[in-house]
Amino acid sequence: MYTFEDNLFSDLHKDAYGFRPRYHRYYEASDDEKQNIWNDLVDYLDQQEADARQLAKEAIIRWEDRVADVIKIGAGDRKTALRWITANEKFYHEQSVEHFVWEQGLLSSFAYEYGKALTKELVDIVEYEEMEWA
User: Would you say the pTM of this structure is higher than 0.90?
Assistant: First the structure.
């Protein structure tokens, strides 16, 4: 039977790796070994979070650079640039717009506010198509 401490470890492992451990040496370890395993897992999770935060920052910079480049080559303003960037995409409803923004890496937990604002901006700009049913 698992203890409260074991359940906390299982939760932490799931946060770090996306799944709960079926068996882990943690459950049989001494208190000192458990602490070392716990610390290593927390360090790993902290690194994963830092990496995700960095990827989100890079995605925002990449997107804003793309918009700026399209403005420079003739779009003239942000709204036109966004229209040009999305011109070859197919949008059927707002969820399609959100999916497009997600594909750009702009709806991760660390870019979420930016991505939601961009989605809202794009919803009023993009052209929507009727869905075809087979």
Answer: no
